């Protein structure tokens, strides 16, 4: 998996290219006042990555287990907290994730799906950390 980001000589608009076999192009920017608001901010993309990873993980699990999933809604909010709002050991960034799973399943299946929602790769990377190699 790879992404390349390119920014021009002025402004904050950044073109992001991804794709393993088929190319995809996305744009990031900063809100009006700093940028032109032509795309999500990088933090909004992080929220979107976590939300979409959660939905894809749930769909994959449901398909594997033969569970009829009518749909999934995932809301992710990333909040930056002030130092005065932090308890010892807390980070300045708080991520809130709310998962709503639609379908006809037993309470046990629903509980298991909520557990699986916390197994996505993006959440795992956020919780456990990653090794970063600057080239």
Task: Give the SSE map.
Elements: E1 3-7, E2 14-18, E3 24-28, H1 42-65, E4 71-80, E5 93-102, H2 107-117, H3 121-128
Antiparallel strand pairs: 1-2, 2-3, 4-5
Main attributes of the structure:
32% helix; single chain; 135 residues; GMP Synthetase, Chain A, domain 3; three-stranded antiparallel beta sheet; globular; alpha+beta; 3 helices
Give a structural overview.
The chain has 135 residues and is an alpha+beta fold. It has two domains: 1-39; 41-128, K homology (KH) domain (GMP Synthetase, Chain A, domain 3). Helix content is 32%, strand content 26%. It is built from three helices and five strands, in the order βββαββαα. It has helices at 42-65, 107-117, 121-128; strands at 3-7, 14-18, 24-28, 71-80, 93-102. A three-stranded antiparallel sheet has the order 1-2-3, with no helix packed on it. A hairpin with a 6-residue loop joins strand 1 (3-7) and strand 2. It starts with a strand and ends in a 7-residue tail after the last helix. The model has no long low-confidence stretch (mean pLDDT 94).
């Amino acid at each position: 998996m790879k992404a390349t980001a390119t920014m021009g000589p002025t402004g904050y608009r950044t073109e992001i290219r991804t794709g393993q076999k088929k190319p995809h192009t996305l744009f990031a920017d900063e809100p009006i006042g700093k940028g032109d608001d032509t795309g999500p901010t990088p933090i909004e993309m992080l929220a979107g990555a976590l939300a979409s990873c959660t939905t894809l993980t749930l769909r994959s699990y449901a398909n594997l287990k033969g569970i009829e999933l009518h749909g999934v809604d995932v809301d992710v909010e990333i909040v930056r907290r002030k130092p005065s709002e932090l308890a010892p050991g807390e980070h300045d960034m708080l991520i809130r994730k709310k998962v709503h799973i639609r379908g006809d399943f037993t309470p046990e299946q629903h509980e298991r799906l909520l557990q699986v929602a916390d197994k996505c790769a993006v959440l795992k990377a956020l919780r456990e950390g990653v090794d970063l190699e600057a080239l």
